[in-house]
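Structure tokens please, single chain.
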Amino acid sequence: RNGGGANLAETDELIGAEPYMLANVRDLGTARRFLEKIEIFKERMGWHGASAEGNPSGGNKYRGLYNIVLKSIGAARKKDPASRLDYVIEYGELMRDAGYYFMDSPGNDLESIAGQVASGCNVIFFVTGNGSITNFPFVPTIKVVTTTRRFELLSRDMDVNAGAYQDGTPMDELGQQTLDLTVNVASGERTVGEKAGHAQVQIWRNWQQTDASQLQTLLNAPKPTGAPIVIQPATTASPVQFIMQQVNGQPTADRIGLILPTSLCSGQVANMIAYHLNKQKLGQPEGISRYVSLAHTEGCGNSGGSAEQMYAQAMVGYAFHPLVRHCLLLEHGCEKTHNDFMRHQIENLGGDMDKLGFASIQLDGGIEKVTEKVEAWFADQIAKDAAPATVQVGLGALRLGLHTDGPVTNSVATQLADLTKMVVSAGGTVVVPENAGLLSSAAYRDNVLTAVTVLPSLGYGEHAAQPGFHIMEAPTEHWVETLTGFAATGVQVIVAHVADQPMQTHPLVPVLQVSAAEAMESFAADLDLLLDGAPASWNEQILGLVKRVIEHDYAPKLYQQGNIDFQFTRGLLGVSL
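Here you go.
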């Protein structure tokens, strides 16, 4: 009407609403292009064994939107019947002219908003039933919540109370108020989200399958048993001893307070709370070393099945990680993998619910109130803790991760084989991801394994409940995705031999990057250890550094520099919805 443009996205959330969307369309070509995008989206989901029925979130289903058609009816109404659909564009494609656009995207809120911003949108209207706190870093997000009751609960985090219409405010009056707010925001007034100072960005994640040819094979792949793999005995031993902390009779290398967001939308708030608790130094005199949050991209807006199970398995692994003293799960409130979902997963995997805390950004009244609740919960747990004690232990108490990036020489492989056998023979645990180049080295395999063909013993992110040697499933080659699942298995320290360049580290588990490659000397400032001297001395050097980390005398260099990353894999069948 005034020469501007509008952009409606989320392809799968319009399945079932095609007649409404196309009742007013510019021309036949535009209508066909819209329907083509719907069909391509359905086909892509089919390649991964998924369907649009996986889109509705926990909050949707709880409030009656229990299938995609019902949800699409509401989603399509974001386009007024009088507004003509003028253009259909690709994800992130620039809107060059005025008019009403449909942009192809998944229903994942953050991924669709990132595409809309890339297309040129300079303000986002976010309609939310539960009260989503989503914000974009540099384009203001005006959040419209649908009921007065929910608006009052989250008044510090919502902009517009659409429930005022149900309370008697005329639609024209409410519409004018919203338009006035929009003009003010476009003129520089900050939205409540901008005032809150948090934002999230996520670009449409890629997918692995390009047709359905591998689907049945992937769906019927054998599952790891969790039992350790039999390996050859050690021919040498190490006298190294570690001073560890003792918690509930078990040795541990740290006592960390973990805030575990159950979805992408609670990740940034978890980061803010962890920063606050670290600044407050809560529990430090009682032995809590630091607070960590694990912000990620999953938990909502993606398919279920194996991808969701890998995610849940790894989440449980982190919740009960040996380095974690106290863990609280923080839900957004409307995601698929909300707190109750995680409770069921924890029960199914044998976890002790009484050891965990739970909080909800939406149900607990927004960011400020949930921060207060989380801080109070940790303070209460710390007050109940016994005074920290220490114990001296040998290799039998070590839970060690081994990984490699780049070429692995025979000398490196042989020494890491000896290290593996020493730790396992002493009663400890060694975990190696299946995509590590180390497992392709004959010098390692011939010196460690007792069989030619060995399958992974652990799923991605599965807790290594039994000591011994384990290989973890790693469905992709991505370093950070592998590291994220790898750390969830319960390893206390990861030793990574790198031969091309230093790699990202992990926010929770120390990653020591070592190298025997001469070409890596130029990266000495970023590496934790350049192996030198005779290869027979390398394990002594490695264990000496591991000891320093466990005893809090050393922190990995790239961790100190902030070169940290974290991302769950979606495996080979995960796809945005």
